[in-house]
């Protein structure tokens, strides 16, 4: 696999993984995102993405998920240590441009990188 792929071992897939993360993880807030971070048990960083119907319709939600996945795919090496991360999109994000969302993700991942569990 290439350096920029996003295989199953770098994604949170099971409901139990999300529940464990929400129960024991630490929340990191920005104005457009909430990230729940926990020291991971896997060998690498893993991501889960949650975008509820409050954010927008299916097209807008899928667009936001694609942007988050692409950002994580390119920047997963910048986060030290194995961490499990659930990124939750907040309301009002669907009206922003892609560049603004990427800027907000930069702020969020800077906070996540500073988090030490």
Summarize the helices and strands and which ones pair or pack.
Elements: H1 15-24, E1 26-29, E2 33-39, E3 46-50, H2 58-75, E4 83-89, H3 98-114
Parallel strand pairs: 3-4
Antiparallel strand pairs: 1-2, 2-4
Helix pairs in contact: 2-3
Structure in words:
The chain is an alpha+beta fold and 117 residues long. It has a single domain (8-114), classed as Ribosomal Protein S5, domain 2, CATH 3.30.230. It is 38% helix and 20% strand. The protein contains three helices and four strands, in the order αβββαβα. It has helices spanning 15-24, 58-75, 98-114; strands at 26-29, 33-39, 46-50, 83-89. Strands 1-2-4-3 form a four-stranded mixed β-sheet, sandwiched between helices. Strand 1 (26-29) and strand 2 form a beta hairpin. The longest helix has 18 residues, at 58-75. It is globular and about 35 Å long. The chain starts with 14 loop residues before the first helix and ends with a helix. The model has no long low-confidence stretch (mean pLDDT 90).
């Amino acid at each position: 696999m290439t350096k920029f792929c996003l295989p199953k071992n770098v994604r949170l897939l099971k409901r139990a993984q999300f529940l464990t993360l929400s129960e024991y993880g630490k929340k990191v807030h920005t104005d457009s995102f909430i990230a729940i971070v926990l020291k991971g048990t896997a060998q690498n960083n893993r991501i889960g993405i949650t975008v509820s119907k409050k954010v927008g319709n299916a097209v807008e939600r899928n667009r936001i998920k694609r942007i988050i996945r692409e950002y994580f795919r390119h920047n997963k090496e910048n986060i030290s240590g194995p961490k499990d991360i659930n990124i939750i999109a907040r309301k009002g994000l669907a009206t922003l441009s892609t560049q603004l969302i990427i800027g907000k993700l930069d702020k969020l991942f800077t906070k996540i990188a500073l988090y030490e569990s």
